Amino acid sequence: MSDRPEKPSDNPAGEPEEIEALAASDAAKVMDGIERNRNKILIGAAVLALAICGALVASQIKKQKELDAANAYSAALSKKEIAAFDGVAVSFPGTPAAGNAMLSKAELQIDQGKPEDAGATLEAFLNDFSGHARYAQGLFALANLYHTSGDAEKAKSFYEKTIEVQEDGELTPLARIRLGDLALEAGDKATAEQRYEESYTLHPGNPFFEYSQDKIALLKVGNPPVVERPAPEPEPEQAAEPETPKPAAPKPEAETPTAAGTKAPQPAPGNGKAKEKGKKAQSPPAGPGKAKAKAAPGNGEKGKAKAGEAPKPKAPAPKAKAPAPKAKAPAPEPAPQVEEKPAQTN
Asked: Does the predicted model carry a pTM greater than 0.85?
């Protein structure tokens, strides 16, 4: 055997000692480096802590700002005024509530019959809120606005952008149906049917399935014949009210002549009986002297003859009674009784 001493590397028992020595030397170097760069390390830790605190504070401020913006947007929705929506967009720029306010403003302008103002509002929304959660809704609203106004090219462009932004969004199948409507309006029935089918084959289970099926059914049936609207019936003329016949005037009763040539009084209405009142007839004196005739009231005419006076003849009763009138007439006033005196003879 050789008397040459073994190398340390050849001695397995010495390996742990070398590792410990190397570790001790490395730790010493690390501690020495920390000691030399203590100030830098402390400054870096402080900067990192400040950055973290700043981020937390900024996040909290942002959340509070978004909460205030959401409350302001809710108040504007209850008012439904353009000025209120503008106030939200100006006071809280860049917030989701501000984007929602612009979309609601455009919808209100459409309801008020201002499509040009609504288009300008939607374009401003698309320029300022490209990362908004309702960005696709803004694209679809602008496409639908151009569609209703008759600009088919711009409508088609924005419908396609809606599909690009959300390949399987809630408005994507409806955008495909709208593209089919544009193709049908252009007279391309094959493309229209393809778009309608894509709305449910590419997006199964969407809520517009029955709507697309109705479109396809109408496409196969064709346009219904146009029926002219019947002319409205003339309004019936109001019938003239019948005239009420006026009651006929009562006929005058026939006058009954008396013996003395006087007229008999008219019969009183109601009892059908005529009461005759005779007038005193003048008679020539029978001889010298004065004769007076006096009618007693209440018990008829009874003449009292005195010496040298002739009794007055009574008026004969009428032979025929006049017929009772049909209509009632007021009773005539009785003729006043006149006291007649005979002529005196000398």
From this structure: no
